[in-house]
Amino acid sequence: MEATEIQERVIKILTPYVKDQAALASAGPETNILEDLKVNSARLVDVVLAFEDEFDIEIADEDVDTVNLVGDCVTLIGQKL
Amino acid sequence: MTRRVVITGLGVLAPNGNGIEQFELALRKGKSGFRHNEAMAAHGFGCTVAGVPEGVEELAEAAFDEELLLAMNPIHQYASLASLEAWQDAGLERPDPADETVHWDTGAIMGTGIGGMDTIGEKVVPMVNANKVRRLGSTVVEQVMASGVSARLSGIFALGNQVTTNSSACATGVEAIVDGTARIRAGKAERMICGGAEVPTVYSWSGFDSMRVLCRKFNDEPEKASRPMSASAAGFVPGAGSGALIVESLDSAQARGARIYAEILGGGINCGGHRGGGSMTSPNPEAVRRCIGLALDESGIDPGEVQAISGHLTATGADPREVGSWAAALGRGPGELPPITSTKSMIGHTLGAAGAVETVAAVLMLDRGFVHASLNCEDVHPDIEAHAASIPQELREMPELRVLMKAGFGFGDVNASLVLRKWDATSA
Known about the structure:
heterodimer, A: mainly alpha, Non-ribosomal Peptide Synthetase Peptidyl Carrier Protein, Chain A, B: alpha/beta, Peroxisomal Thiolase, Chain A, domain 1, 2 domains, eleven-stranded mixed sheet, two-stranded antiparallel sheet, 15 strands, 35% helix, 18% strand
């Protein structure tokens, strides 16, 4: 799967959790999920579960800790596919 | 001098009408909120009738954004929708989530009897038993912790005063109002969102069915199932709903030019100590009389001034004793009791929400001068035949109504009561 397609699907999953919808419009690989998009940090658990369902993968707990940017999600998911 | 406390906003979800305008219409018409409940039937309940508000999810989707909705389970939706209506009814502005202002003088006591039992039954237990703990997600804790019911309100309304969830079974809703009032009287808050919420779920209702306290005799005639004060009362009908009141200091209400519905003259809370006939499941009649007396004492009015009673009155064997307690506490003989009515005859027993939903009804009756009918007691119980004329079989218009008492009596032998007075030109 192309990275652009993964990113598109990642952003779609993030969308309901994003408090700063304006920042979402310009989101890219360097966008920080907590700081730029203002996602509640507790909800990262739900976002990762949604990634698992969307891409039919399993993400280990230690991998979750490496996720800060939208690009990190895309890289991690790409490795699991 | 003791601070005066008033009610400036009302919100409600009830089985016979959502929102105070629909609810008032339903009360006036004597509209029943009971329907056959398929989930109860499917799970082998003896009682298959319940009172469930309609369209709650759609109301929540219209009122809250997607991020909030993902975190809310039904008990959060119930509590938040009634509170939002009450907040806006009080003329208060809904805070922008991006506005960092905290209302340090405003809090919430939003109670529940059983809380997020549906989430526990449908999600937590099945997933844990299937060893899928890691897939529970981040929202389960806030959905099943009792305090989540009130904590959710803090986020929506930027509340910075006390925010807590009380739980005293069927006395919960009235207790929340009494406690919120006391906090404002003590000068610790200017306004409190007070109320209660309870969701429809077989997991909460099953134990009551097993106790055989739910009505089993009118499954084919749902509208006749809830029969408070009737000789043919056969148990209560379970209900769901939520009620919220904006309880506010008179100073604050007047300073912001708020419309005032009623003044809370007095409140009482006690417990029967499981003595004198009281137990975990039945009330000590002396405690009930004392609780009514506590509210009257604080109000400073003469018991003879009480013009209407919204009873607890569930349609169980406790009703005749309750009516006797009201008569004794108010010093009224046969034929002297003021109109006494049961909102549960239309909506069932909404448990932890009951006191709040029914106090919303009581305030509407005071504000708009009527006492709603108490349905299904054409055959008044023989033990209270002497008070039969005080039970309104039909709507009674009472433009002269100024003082009303409301009470809730719950499992655990716990009691709560209120004396309310209509706000009018002579009140200030």
